Amino acid sequence: MRLLRLLVPATLLIATGCHSAFIDATIGNRTDKPISLVELDYPSASFGTQTLAPGQDFHYRFKVLGSANLKLIYTDTANLEHDIPGPRLGEGDEGAMTVTIAPTGPQWVLHLSNRPTN
Predict the structure, then answer these.
(1) Does the pTM exceed 0.70?
(2) pLDDT value at position 4?
(3) Sequence-distant (≥ 6) Cβ neighbours of residue 111 within 8 angstroms
(4) Per-domain residue ranges of the chain
């Protein structure tokens, strides 16, 4: 019985456990030309890829530490660098985010909730 009293709290701790908040991000190229040097800056870090072909998606998962606005940077086929500010992220945000690079410019779609950090 004593063992059971020790196991129940431990099992509950494992079942409820700590939850880390991550964002599943997708950057998609919906132009008819490749883009290069694609970078997405987010609070405390950045990620990216060398090239995105027309119709191609790049997926990345990250954790937000701190709060700041997103920024998308990429280079088009005319070698022109685009530096586009995006929405704000806060520490503890989690969910999904899609940045679609279209001929008219990037479109940001965020499906996020905010959880307190552990």
Answers:
(1) yes
(2) 46
(3) 95, 96, 97
(4) 19-114
Candidates 2.60.40.10, 3.20.20.70, 2.60.40.2890, 1.10.3720.10; CATH matching 19-114:
2.60.40.2890
The answer to whether 98 and 59 have CB atoms below 8 angstroms apart is no
Calpha distance 36→42 (Å, rounded): 19
For residues 19-49, one letter each, b for 16 or more C-beta atoms within 10 angstroms of the residue's C-beta and e for the rest, the string is eebebebebbbbbeeebeebebbbbeeeebb
What is the distance between the alpha carbons of residues 73 and 106, in angstroms, rounded to a whole number? 10
Split the chain (118 residues) into runs of 10 and give each run's mean pLDDT.
50 57 96 98 95 98 95 96 96 96 95 76
The reported pLDDT for the residue numbered 17 is 58
